[in-house]
Write a structure and sequence with these properties.
Layout: E1 9-10, H1 11-42, H2 65-87, H3 91-108, H4 112-115, H5 122-141, H6 145-166, H7 170-186, H8 193-217, E2 221-223, E3 225-227, H9 234-245, H10 247-251, H11 257-265, H12 273-290, H13 296-318, H14 330-333, H15 335-349, H16 355-366, H17 369-373, H18 378-396, H19 406-428, H20 436-439, H21 447-461, H22 470-481, E4 484-488, E5 493-497, H23 500-506, H24 515-528, H25 541-554, H26 559-587, H27 594-617, H28 624-638, H29 646-661, H30 665-682, E6 702-704, E7 711-713, H31 716-738, H32 743-749, H33 755-768, H34 772-790, H35 799-814, H36 819-839, H37 871-891, H38 899-914, H39 918-939, H40 943-964, H41 975-1004, H42 1006-1027, H43 1030-1049, H44 1054-1078, E8 1082-1084, E9 1092-1094, E10 1097-1098, E11 1116-1119, H45 1146-1149, E12 1160-1162, E13 1168-1170, H46 1173-1184, E14 1191-1197, E15 1203-1209
Parallel strand pairs: 1-10
Antiparallel strand pairs: 2-3, 4-5, 6-7, 8-9, 11-15, 12-13, 14-15
Helix pairs in contact: 1-2, 1-3, 2-3, 2-5, 3-5, 3-6, 5-6, 5-7, 6-7, 6-8, 7-8, 7-9, 8-9, 8-11, 11-13, 12-13, 12-15, 13-15, 13-16, 15-16, 16-19, 18-19, 18-21, 19-21, 19-24, 21-24, 22-23, 24-26, 25-26, 26-27, 26-28, 27-29, 28-29, 28-30, 29-30, 30-31, 30-33, 31-32, 31-33, 33-34, ...
């Protein structure tokens, strides 16, 4: 091996060494094969080293020949390691040395298995163990973390390859032995802890995949011969290997994923051995949480995965078929959840486990198959009692909870919520029925749930001072799961902050909406509604009385409390309404029964009392959000109507009067939708009170409506007309009163909505008029003109689709033209609206736009400027019209030769260019291609050719624009924005050119696509090396060889195919040379506390030359676009305690961490300049290989962000 000057090796020498290692392995493989051939010719045996005499038909080496070859590869690997250490080889020769034994094992899956007669024999097992061990050892002493991790990963994959070849479980059995070896390396203190911790994730996942495979395939444990044992199965053997192999490493806090993986692996262990594993795992978890060195997140995840595994076992085993062997013994089935619930309660109380993990166990136990569908009620009853005891314990210590301790209050609130939900679900599933109701003569009632509801409410009353309402609790839980990482430059650390916007949107729902109030009332109602006796409807009075008592006398008298009370009334009445609806529909009938009237009157009494209080105290305007929710709750109560009119009409009248009186825009807009839902539920009843109203025959007719085509009675249109007309009358009155006043008074008066009420009138008229379609079309057109005349831009959010559908119905009814023409006309009309928006005509009669974008206040429920008062919203509205035009043109793309669609595509591109929407502009090119292809298809038959040609041409133009950094005439943009734009253009071009070539190759052949892909990849490679863009380098690594392979696949000549394959390989090698030459490869070391490893290599063309006096050296370009080099942030491993390094072997003692050269320099102006280590290394390498007497090296940046090494003459 030749050395360059300054004790460095050239990249060419480095590759020569790599190829030398490669050919040494290939030579060892074939020489050993020939050696076995000659041996079997002179000393033949049967099945040891030979299978007969060499040269005869069917001859091959014997099974022990694999061990002979493996021994030779071990010696070759050791010799190559010594050579690498002697010459200071870089990562590429070490890569060949490390992976060679493992690649040989891959080949052995085809060859050595045949030598062993299709089985994994003892010599093959020994060969596999020594070669995998050799590969991992070579990776560990290479001081390159990627090499060790690659060798460990491949060592785990190799047994899977052998399993695919042999089957039966023999290969996966070897994986267990490999895992034991990996555990030895993982516990070696001389190896880097971060490297082991990261790499263990993939290794644990491979073991879990193997377990699942063994269970699904019912594979046996095979070590030379199958081992038939009822308890020790192959999945259990893998699970135990993971436990034993990584046990020492877990003690050293190096492999936190092992206990988590063991917990997950319990889900794939067949019985009866799984009982032993579960017992072991529970004992190990108890041991783990009692050890002080256990990290909290590890215990949390391990406990959570234990809970999840039991949940999966319970459900999978109940499904039968493939997973029936996972079923635990019935006597043992409840042991894991009982133990985990007990351990979780104690550990979370003492701070060894988070409350969230314990609550997850409670939820999974609740949702398990045994809990929901098991036999007998004892397990659910014990589970509920357990939860109530936990709530009671918190209630007894309520004085100890500080009101400022939000975390403790949150945990109490979650516990109450989980307890109540558990009782509710179990009662709903009928799992709390113990027969107590039948014994006391009350059949049908859920007596047990009634008692639990009373107990929960009684305990919860003492917790209401510290309990969060459901809204605030939901916001806190969502915040906990939506934290974002924030970098603090002052401390130099990352911190987690919750998303404040989510919590603000949810807000607080008031004390009436706490879990200990909602759930007991809902449980009581659900349990009582189970009875079919009429008298039980009177039980509804009990929860309503409790609710009214709290709302009227105990809780704050504000809109939030009243809104909470109305929604609680809805939840209380929901089970009753559902049960009465179900019984009425099933039984039929011809007259209204007393239960219907009793329910509606009881439900109506509560809101009427609330209405009395609203009239007495009024609604505070600042509490608009709560007032809106109050009225929405009233509408929801109206939907519970079971009599056929009493509750629906009463609640709708109450909601409408309050909404109109206080100008609640959201409630007014929701009234038509509530009326539609209420009428839809009303007509499902077999008999209703409203049927007794003497309507005319035309009003009783069922007609198809605009509401998704649902059939409604014609009289329902009266309600829609009234609901829409009154707000419009109010708007017209306010508009008349505001005439002559200033804009401020108009803004104060005109607050009634107009869009939804107008649509409500349209829906009503459609039902009431005999021939409505032409009328509706006329009304839509007039409404659009009226909206423009009055400046109500909000109408245009929905006017184009309203016009399109009304035109469609009218045209279909009167046979004017087809659907394609309808959509084309709608597109053209919408284009007129769009152009009017662009010209400012549509906004001419609207109030002057407020500059900027709309910022929603906290109390705004819609959080959007629907009235388009701001200029930013009006720009969005104009683009929405443009989107409607595009959609309509797509639907009518085949009408009139597709001219509307074609014009739309090009106008869209121009608009996006004009508005400076870079991504949408580039995406519009694809829409243009579709439009061109559509028109070509309508005119002729060259659809794909037209699309492909346009995409290829557009892609080439975008590639040129990216290369030349064209600004697209966006001169007002900054340089940074233009750089981003050209990068996006380059990526779009890189997508469009191959896609267009694929369309062009539809008839011509795949060779065209492959040729374009390869040639275009070469173009991208040249641009990528000039501008040093990473995405282009990755693109070319894929595009060029894939393109060549596609061309080769389309060639029938075998020789030419071989040449193309070789060409593809050479392009990869060539790019590898270039990339390695440009990049100073720096990787992490394998030793503990090792730093980045710098490869001591200089470019091949760096020679030491003498500089002629008076001649200034040419500038040396070192690296381009340093801005793309991103240093890794500090990982979580740095906060973990490090174990003092102790050598595990003599080879590891030789690994000396290499310290990185300083990369930060002081500027003298209050800031530092930092260069990436690989860039700095190449600068120093260049200076080391050149003489520059009389000149001073200067590091500069050019206008493209590239680092340039220049020289300036020194002044004497």
């Amino acid at each position: 091996m030749q050395y360059r000057r300054h004790q460095t090796i050239s990249i060419v020498h480095d590759y020569v060494l790599s190829f030398g290692h490669l050919f040494a392995v290939l030579g060892g493989f074939w020489l050993s094969r020939w050696g076995l051939f000659f041996y079997c010719g002179y000393y033949p045996d049967s099945g040891v080293l030979c299978n007969g005499v060499s040269g005869t038909d069917g001859w091959m080496p014997g099974e022990w020949g694999a061990l002979v070859q493996a021994s030779i590869f071990v010696m070759i690997g050791y010799a190559q390691w010594r050579q690498n250490e002697r010459v200071g080889a870089t990562i590429l020769p070490r890569l060949v040395t490390t992976l060679a034994p493992l690649i040989v094992l891959f080949i052995g899956a085809e060859i050595w298995v045949d030598w062993a007669n299709g089985s994994i024999s003892l010599p093959l097992i020994i060969s596999m163990l020594i070669l995998t061990g050799m590969g991992m050892w070579l990776g560990s002493v290479s001081n390159r973390a990627p090499l060790f991790l690659s060798s460990a990963f491949l060592s785990s994959v190799i047994p899977i390859i052998y399993e695919l070849k042999v089957g039966g479980g023999a290969g996966l059995t070897l994986l267990a032995i490999v895992v034991l070896m990996q555990g030895i390396f993982a516990s070696a203190k001389g190896l880097s802890q971060p490297m082991i911790q990261r790499g263990s994730i993939g290794l644990v996942l491979i073991v879990l995949i193997a377990e699942f495979w063994a269970v699904v395939g019912d594979l046996d444990l095979v070590l030379v011969q199958p081992i038939d044992n009822l308890i020790v199965s192959l999945p259990l053997f893998l699970w135990l290997s993971l436990l034993i192999g990584y046990f020492a490493a877990v003690h050293m806090r190096r492999v936190p994923w092992m206990p988590i993986g063991l917990a997950v692996g319990l889900a794939f262990l067949p019985s009866p051995g799984s009982a032993f594993a579960w017992t072991t795992a529970i004992i190990m978890f108890v041991y783990m949480v009692t050890r002080p060195q256990t990290r909290r997140w590890v215990s949390d995840w391990t406990f959570s995965m234990l809970a999840t595994s039991w949940f999966l076992v319970d459900w999978l085993s109940s499904s039968g078929s493939t997973f029936s062997n996972l079923e635990l013994d019935p006597a043992f089935l409840i042991v894991p959840p009982a133990a985990l619930l007990f351990i979780g309660a104690i550990a979370s109380r003492h701070g060894k486990l988070s409350k969230a993990a314990h609550h997850l166990m409670v939820v999974l136990t609740l949702l398990s198959h045994e809990m929901l569908f098991g036999v007998g009620s004892y397990l659910p009853l014990i589970f509920v009692v357990y939860l109530l005891v936990l709530v009671l314990r918190e209630a007894s210590n309520v004085e100890l909870v500080d009101l400022e301790d939000s975390e403790a209050r949150k945990e109490v609130s979650v516990l109450v919520l989980v307890t109540g939900v558990s009782i509710l679900i179990l009662e709903w599933m009928g799992r709390l029925e113990s027969g107590l109701g039948d014994k006391i003569g009350i059949s049908g009632l859920g007596v047990e749930a009634l008692m639990f509801a009373v107990v929960l409410y009684a305990i919860g009353r003492s917790l209401r001072t510290i309990e969060f309402d459901v809204g605030k609790l939901s916001g806190m839980l969502i915040d906990a799961g939506s934290t974002v990482s924030v970098w603090d430059p002052q401390t130099g650390q990352w911190s987690s902050q919750p998303s404040a916007s989510i919590n603000q949107r949810i807000g607080e729902w008031g004390p009436a909406m706490r879990g200990s109030m909602i759930l007991p009332l809902l449980i009581f109602s659900l349990a009582a509604a189970g009875s079919t006796a009429t008298w039980t409807v009177m039980l509804l009075l009990l929860p309503i009385m409790v609710l009214m008592r709290e709302v009227l006398f105990e809780l704050p008298q504000d809109n939030r409390t009243k809104a909470g009370g109305v929604w609680l009334l809805f939840f209380v009445g929901l089970p009753w309404s559902f049960r009465i609806h179900e019984s009425l529909i099933d039984a039929g009938g011809s007259e209204v029964v007393p239960a219907q009237i009793m329910f509606d009157l009881i439900m109506l009494a509560g809101p009427l009392l609330g209405q009395f209080m609203l009239i007495k105290q009024g609604v505070v305007k600042e509490e608009g959000k709560a007032a809106d929710w109050l009225l929405i709750g009233v509408m929801m109560v109206a939907l519970l109507d079971v009599s056929g009119g009493i509750l629906l009409l009463g609640m709708m009248f109450l909601a409408m009067t309050r909404a109109l009186l206080h100008r609640r825009t959201i409630a007014i807009n929701l009234l038509p939708f509530a009326w539609a839902a209420g009428i839809l539920m009303l007509i499902q009843l077999p008999v209703a009170i409203i049927d007794s109203v003497p309507f005319s025959a035309s009003l009783l007719t069922m007609k198809s409506s605009f509401v998704f085509g649902i059939n409604y009675p014609a009289w329902a249109g009266i309600g829609w007309v009234i609901i829409g007309a009154i707000p419009l009358i109010g708007f017209a009155r306010d508009l008349r009163l505001s005439k002559g006043d200033d804009a401020g008074k108009r803004e104060e008066f005109a607050q009634y909505p107009t869009l939804i009420p107008t649509l409500s009138i349209l829906v009503g008229l459609h039902l009431l008029v005999s021939d409505p379609y032409l009328l509706v079309l006329a009304v839509v057109v007039v409404a659009g003109i009226g909206a423009w005349a009055t400046g109500q831009l909000a109408a245009f959010w929905v006017w184009p689709p309203a016009f399109c559908f009304s035109l469609m119905f009218t045209a279909s009814e009167h046979d004017w033209f087809g659907e394609d023409e309808v959509f084309t006309i709608a597109s053209l009309v919408t284009w007129i609206v769009v152009i009017l928006f662009w010209k400012g005509i549509m906004q001419s009669r609207a109030p002057e736009a407020i500059p900027g974008k709309y910022v929603a206040p906290t109390k705004d429920m819609v959080r959007f400027d629907a009235e388009a008062k701001y200029q930013g919203t009006r720009d969005i509205l104009a683009n929405v019209q443009l989107g409607y035009a595009v959609i309509f043109s797509l639907f009518g793309m085949i009408a009139w030769g597709g001219i509307a669609f074609l014009a739309t595509a090009f106008l869209l591109f121009w608009r996006m260019w004009n508005q400076r929407y870079a991504k949408l502009m580039l995406a519009a090119i694809f829409l243009q291609a579709i439009a061109i292809g559509n028109t070509a298809n309508e005119i002729g038959k060259y659809e794909f050719e037209a699309m492909g040609t346009w995409l290829v041409l557009s892609g080439l133009v975008l590639t040129w624009a990216s290369w030349r950094m064209w600004d697209f005439e966006w001169t007002e943009k900054s340089d940074e924005e233009i750089l981003d734009l050209t990068k996006l253009a380059g990526i779009a071009g890189a997508i469009y050119v191959p896609l267009g070539a694929l369309f062009l190759a539809d008839d011509i052949g795949a060779w065209l696509f492959g040729s374009v892909l390869a040639v275009f990849g070469g173009i991208q490679m040249m641009i990528g090396f000039e501008q040093d863009e990473k995405w282009r380098r990755i693109y070319t690594l894929v595009a060029i060889p894939v393109g060549i392979l596609i061309v080769a696949g389309d060639i029938s000549n075998g020789v030419l195919q071989g040449v193309m394959y070789l060409l593809a390989a050479l392009t990869l090698f060539g790019q590898g040379f270039l990339y390695m030459n440009r990049a100073g490869v720096m990787v992490s070391g394998t030793a503990a506390h090792s730093t980045l490893v710098t490869e001591n290599i200089v470019p091949a063309n760096t020679d030491v030359t003498e500089v002629i006096d008076g001649e200034e050296p040419e500038p040396v370009e070192v690296v381009e676009e340093v801005v793309e080099t991103i240093s890794e942030s500090d990982s979580v491993d740095e906060v973990l305690p490090q174990v003092e390094p102790e050598p595990v072997a003599e080879a590891l003692q030789q690994i000396e961490p290499e310290t990185a050269a300083p990369t930060r320099f002081h500027s003298g102006e209050g800031f530092d300049i930092e260069l990436p280590p690989d860039v700095l290394f190449r600068i120093r390498s260049s200076l080391r290989g050149a003489t520059y007497d009389g000149y001073k090296p200067i590091v500069k940046w050019d206008q493209h962000g590239r680092v340039i090494l220049d020289f300036e003459a020194l002044n004497d």
